[in-house]
Amino acid sequence: MKLDNSIEKIFEELNKMNGNSSDIVTRIIEKSNRKIGYIYLESVSSDDKISNFLNKAIVNMNKKKPFDSFYDLIQNSIFNSKVKSIETYEDMYYHLASGFTVIVIDKCDKAIVVETRQKLDRGVTESTSETITRGPKDSFTENHNMNLGLIRKRIKDPNLWYEEVKVGRRTKSKVTVAYIKDIVPNYKVRKILDELNKIDIDAVIDTGYIRELLEKEQKSVFPKVISTERPDFACTSLLNGKIVILVENSPFVIILPAVLTDFFHSPEDNYQKPLNVSFSRILRGICFFLALLTPAIYIALMTFNQEIIPDQLLISLAIQRDGVPFPSAIEVLLFVLTFEVLREADIHSPSFSGSAMNVVGALILGDAAVAAGIVSPIVIIIVAATSISELVFYDVDVIDAIREWRLLFIIAATFMGLIGFVAIFIIFIAKLTSLECLGTPYLTPFSPLNIRSLKDSIIRVSRKKLKERPEYLTKNLKRLDDNYEESNS
Question: What is the pTM of this model?
Answer without folding.
Answer: 0.85
